[in-house]
Structure prediction request, 418 residues.
Amino acid sequence: MIVYLRLFKESFSFAINALRNNKLRTFLSLLGVTIGIFSIIAVLAAVDSLDRNIQENLSGLDKNTIYLTKFSFGPTSVPRWQRDNYPQTVYTDYEFVSRNVPDIMACAYTIFDFGGGESIRYQGETVAGVQISPITYEIYNINEFVVERGRFYTESESASGAPVIVLGYSLAENLFGNINPLGKQVRVYGRKLTVIGILKKYGVGIFDSPDEQAFVPANFVRRFKNGGPDGIPGAIIIRPKKGVDIGAFEQVLKEKFRNYRGLKAGEPDNFFINKLSGMTDAIDGILGTMNAFGWVISGFSLLVGGFGIANIMFVSVKERTNLIGIQKSLGAKNRFILLQFLFEAIILAVIGGLVGLALVGITTLIASNFTGDFEFVLSFWNMMLGFGLSTLIGLISGVIPAISASKLDPVEAIRTGM
Prediction:
């Protein structure tokens, strides 16, 4: 054991001397490993951080939540011309579903706004491009919103289309600053609405954050919003009761809604049932693809880094041929020479990998400061993965040079090195 510790110490010394004596050559050789490790771990850290942020944003949502609308939230085999002819999902559809479909925990109706957002004005302060969500009161239970100040609008206010509004945290800050917004009147759609609630701060997410949104009763907007011949574009948001068989629930929903719309057997649906779980599965697929591309691209950098390590080890064997011959003539065994150069290659690669990890750590800190609520995290697992990859690169890159050094004839090695 002591012999191997001494061997490791000597190999470490040789590696450090290589760094000191051939700074530029060693730097260029390790640059590939550093860039490769940096690329892989940076991609993994970004994807992990994004995935964690998505999970946090979806933590208050039931993944079985269903969006019934004329639009498909994912790829579909239905041709575009056929989808364009689907009727809009309107308020009366929502009333039918909420009254006739069993096992519904909450059912809401929302109006889609395909424009660039609305402007909200309070006295001399205006915030432009705000996403206004005209939606019925049930969204409070579906998304499990938390109102920090004030309250959400009630069922009666939702049904009557009362001129009230609930603001997201950041929107309220930008509009009112330190002023208490509750009870104040803001102008939206050219009309006055009373602020009755402010949501808690949710932070940035892959979906639109509630912090920058505002919520108003759908019936308030229906008074003046002009839709096409089929009505205003909208969707029914359905949250089934817990423990319900989702497959069976979807089937019941589909059959009842087909009957309501007068579709006969054999006729295709003229609506889509989009599940939130399907959206999250699609996002997981995108994240997986990003991971795969990151590995492929970074793999080329690691390959270049491996060649660099192998190159510097071949040069090291050439420079120390005489010393290898002397060691073998004094009784050093082949495995001692093999391990000596193998350790040296691993140490060099690990140094490059540690530099890459340090750069990732610095980058995540800087990125977290610039992105505000979105926090990039370098996990312990990713750090260990980077360390392990560095060791593996050193091992693979150093095998052939180490074997060639261990097989040198001592006499020929001394003669060649003189």
Q: What stands out?
A: The chain is about 55% helix and 15% strand.
